[in-house]
Structures are given as structure tokens and as C-alpha cells.
Specification:
Helix content: 40-55%
Strand order of the largest sheet: 1-3
Order of helices and strands: HEHHHHEEEHH
Strand content: 5-15%
Distance between the termini: 15 Å
Shape: globular
Number of strands: 4
Number of helices: 7
Length: about 200
């Protein structure tokens, strides 16, 4: 099933219900859930909003270059297949810094994009699967697009950036993880018109 319809947890629910032996007249545990209900249950509180207000303070956003004023941004999807020795080297790289593959790759992409755009403050969009308490039996796409900000100084090493990014990403996850839509609704007028036109997805 495509992720436009269900998330990873839903697949396990569907498999469980498919091979379960139902009682007569029993209703399967899995059911279609509404994304709006999920958003309401995970709405940020005042402390969360204070964190995000500081997180995006003085943020100009990330816009990608266009060839002309009429052209739109081109979507590029890249898949990389690593050889065995390359995969081991990649594993050693993120493990040696005490970060996850997601944190390592997203930070690397942000720095690379920053050098291309001549910026040292990059915002990347990324989807995250989120389920509120009591939603473990619901089938559907329970995710939201989050915005992650990466900033670095002139003399900062990549290792130092990774250490700081790990703390910031974990802090972001602990403060409600509001979607970009929710941020705009709660922080109206405090975010740039285009928070980001670049995204990163880890499968």
C-alpha cells in the first residue's frame, strides 16, 4: 500500500486483522481514521508554541532558485544504492557522531544546500509518522510535515553541527511536533511567507 493512503503502522494492523480469526459478527479492529482528529489530539500547548517561536526567530526561510520568474520549482527524487563497504562506512560515520542516519543525512543535505544557495540558515521539510494515545488500532495516514532548521557558523565543524542538531531535533520532537500548517495557524505573521521549498524523506 502506498504511503499516500496508510503509514507503516497501518500495514501491521492490516496484516494482523487479515490473519486473525474473527468472532461471529465481530468488527475488525482496524478502521479508517481521519487525519484531522489526529491533529487535534496533538495540538501544541503554550510551552510548545514558545519553543517554536524561539526556534524560528529571525528565520528568512529557504527558497530554491528559479530559471525565470514564470518557472516553478523542479521536484528531484534521488535513490542511492550503496555497496557493502560503502554502507559500512556510512554506518560508522553516523554512529561515531552519536546521531541517527536521519539526523546525519538531513544535516548533510542542509549544509550542501546552504553552500549552493549561499546561506547558513536552512529549513527542510520532512514527514513524520505520529499517533496519539489510543490510535494504535486505526488504519490511515497519520503523519505530518515538520519543518527543521539548521544553522551553522563560519568556523563550526560538521561534528559540532551534528551534536547541536541532535539536541535540537530531539527538542523539536518533545515540543508537540506541530505541522507546518499548525505553526502558521498558531504563529500567524511570525513565520516567513515561504518557510521552505526543500524537503528530505528518510525511508
Amino acid at each position: 500500500l502506498h504511503h499516500i493512503l496508510v503509514d507503516g503502522t497501518s500495514v501491521a494492523i492490516l496484516v494482523r486483522d487479515l490473519f486473525a480469526t474473527p468472532e461471529p459478527d465481530a468488527v475488525p479492529a482496524g478502521r479508517i481514521g481521519e487525519h484531522g482528529m489526529q491533529d487535534d489530539r496533538l495540538a501544541p500547548d503554550a510551552d510548545d508554541l514558545h519553543f517554536w517561536r524561539e526556534y524560528f526567530s529571525s528565520c528568512a526561510g529557504t527558497r530554491l532558485p528559479r530559471r525565470s520568474t514564470a518557472s516553478s520549482v523542479t521536484t528531484v527524487e534521488t535513490a542511492v544504492v550503496l555497496a557493502h563497504d560503502e554502507a559500512l562506512a556510512f554506518q560508522d560515520a553516523w554512529r561515531s557522531q552519536g546521531v541517527s542516519p536521519f539526523q546525519w543525512l538531513m544535516s548533510l543535505l542542509a549544509v550542501h544546500l546552504g553552500f549552493s544557495l549561499g546561506q547558513k540558515d536552512i529549513v527542510l521539510m520532512s514527514p513524520l509518522e505520529l499517533r496519539a494515545a489510543g490510535m494504535d488500532h486505526v488504519v490511515g495516514l497519520h503523519s505530518r510535515t515538520l519543518a527543521y532548521r539548521t544553522r551553522w557558523g563560519d568556523d563550526e565543524t560538521f561534528a559540532a553541527l551534528l551534536s547541536r542538531q541532535r539536541k535540537q531535533i530531539l527538542s523539536a520532537w518533545s515540543h508537540g511536533s506541530p505541522s507546518v500548517h499548525e505553526l502558521r495557524r498558531h504563529l500567524a505573521g511570525e513565520l516567513p511567507p515561504a518557510l521552505s521549498e526543500a524537503g528530505f524523506t528518510w525511508h
